[in-house]
Give the backbone structure.
Amino acid sequence: MDLDQLAVRLRSEIGADRVLTDRQQLRTYECDGLAQYKVMPAIVVLPATTDQVAAVVGACVEAKVPYVARGSGTGLSGGALPHADGVLIVTSQMRAILEVDAPNQRAVVEPGVINLQVSREAAPYGYYYAPDPSSQQICSIGGNVAENSGGAHCLKYGFTTNHVLGIELVAPEGDVVRLGGKAPDPPGYDLLGAFVGSEGTLGIATEVTLRLMRTPEAVRTLLAAFESTDHAGGAVSAIIGAGVIPAAIEMMDALAIEAAEAAVHCNYPEGAGAVLIVEIDGPADEVESQFADVERHCRANDAFEIRIAADDVERALFWKGRKSAFAAVGRISPDYIVQDGVIPRTALPDVLRRIADLSGSSDVRVANVFHAGDGNLHPLVLFDESVAGQADDAEEVSGAILDLCIEYGGSITGEHGVGMDKAKYMSRMFTDEDLDTMQLLRCAFDPEHLSNPGKIFPTPRLCGEVPGRHKGVHPMQESGLAEVF
Amino acid sequence: MPTDATLEALRKVCDERARPAEEGDSVADVPARYVAAPTSTEEASEVLRLAAEQDLRVVARGGGSKLGWGAPPTAVDLVVDTGGIAGVVEHAAGDLVVVVRAGTAVVDLQSSLAGAGQQLALDVPEAAATVGGMVATNTSGPRRLLYGTLRDLLIGVTFVRADGVVAKAGGKVVKNVAGYDFGKLLTGSYGTLGLVTQLAFRLHPLPRVSRVLTLEVPGPVEAGRAVAAVLESQVVPTAVEVDQPATGPLTVAVLLEGTEAGVAGRAARAADLLGDANEGDDVPPWFGAYPFAPDGVGLKLTCEISGLTRLLVAVRRTAERQDVPVDVRGSATGVLYAGMPADTAPDIAAAVLADLRAAATTYGGSVVALTAPAAVRAALDVWGPVPGLDLMVRLKDQLDPEHRLSPGRFVGGI
């Protein structure tokens, strides 16, 4: 079956208005949030139900055509980059919140539901959905599940994987499977745990059961300005070392602050070499005492200005500079690469110094924005594509930063995913055996490699014939070496 | 001393730490043939490579406290004792991370972490339990309400595949999405996917202060009401547990942890919510202990949070109907453990299991028979229905195509 025939079949299966093949329309979908990779898909489908997703996947499998799932397209690793000879399955038409079940602390949603919408719906009951990627106003739950998205508050509350209790998925061969649900600890392998963060390579989630958390009684947020990232890093270590786990600790360096000021006028303290945003939440009594500790540790590490948010409006202003930092960098540089490496928190001062050295010796500017509490760096490597050689230099610095992360025992990605972008770095972090073993899981789910092929793994593993399972008499028994006990 | 080719080969790897199995090495009454105790990942790899060559069925053993859990293995040629693969590899206190070998006793790990004011935030039901054994059986306790379970704390894993290949996934940083999360697949896999040799966990600070409120209530309905009141509040308990003995009143216990000033205020508010509660510093003796003896019948029940009361009622009803004492205790997260005496008749145990499975399913959950005397277990559907089983079998076929690792212990005969 060629792609034209497949389009005809898809139109008859799910309706002509849900299948796009017009090049102008396809162009909208040629990249995700990582715009340097662009591929025009052959066909885009916009299914509205699980059955329609299953029908599309089934048709692709029969035709041996690869397919890629896409939510809102805000991903930063090219995970939803389309396949030129494949189908892009966009879940944005599946955006019903099916249930907010406060007594069970769960919400059941379709994959196209926007992250922030879940908390909005749960708020009247006194609950919220904890994972909060910076793009939470537009990113989808299905995309969050695929990428195991984090966010500023995952230091205390964990990542998407810690908040997904159940999924309905269309497995890569087109079967609809349910894993988990509202109750904890379903028997069997934790396939759900492996599915979350599998970047669309193990199938497509069509319904997700989420944990809702009780809204904290109190939230206190402070913004502390320091002369340098070393001082700010010292404050972070002191806070964590004192046994306090804040809801979030975020750091920005001077260049990132400059960009944020230019873009959103967040009015951070002037002359700061680094700012920290620290948020504490929980029961009011507990928050008061911990917040006092945090303030003390910031002062002890030479914070020259500390602002405390008086209300939600001021808190939002503190966060505005941080959450808009990536886009803001566009104000000070025509192009940039966002990295997502992770290091042990205690290595922060060393690694920041070495990033500064890299930047200095290569003449490539690097702005640093990061989740300081868990060591997740987001170096923004700035360049101008119109200047010959700059893009290559930036790519080189970017790769060198990931090498640094690995050297310090960290990871090449903390929350953005490997996708297309970082597949080439996987073998710096894992051995061939590690990657080969991971792909055994892939082979169990998707032996034909049709579900989002070419992502995560630098070299796909061939899924050979599975040797026959051990049956009948044990060979040792048969050969007389062993007796039946 | 009997010698044979297999033993000779095992001794080349493990010296005198390889030996013929004795009666005490049986797994759920299934006798083993050899025991080998490698002392490193490399040795474990050689042992499993040898087992692959000689087509040996392998069961891993940590402290042995839950070796009889799950279904009995169909056969055991080789028990791999992980006791020699022990010790903390790295405790990065400033990063709240520990890397530890699988055969380390959990109590030893906790006492070493406590020196730095830190903990692996997991309850330890048996002193003998090893870190690897807890991962294999996905052990959890009351504090899962606040801290989650192993799947939430495990950040990196090194394991040996059935063919002897050493693989790792994750790492030693808390935030990491590079590659598939094999740690989660191995957690609760009962040794059927590989032999775990090294693990990395995120840690938590030890709380400065803790307070415990206990409340005696006449029946499941009152217990459920007390639990719901605390869960719906904003006091953020570390654990909320219910103990329902076979007869008599129930006890609800609420554990609060935090700072001196914070806990005092929260305890006062929780006491208001509960009514007539007693306040103290220590958890009651039943807290976090299984309600069954090692040789008794033990079940794990799950349900949606709001199904707790009705499941407690279902336990009392089936106990009455089958005329057998059933103790049950568990947490507000929707995980309960039920216990029956070792001398429970097999048909009675099976009837109770069927009743409770029906009830738990109504409330979104499941029931697994964790442990039982051999005669009883033979009458039980240990794992019950398992959604997604087809994909699980396919995963097993990929990692252990000959089904030599813990054969038959897991769901669907895996």
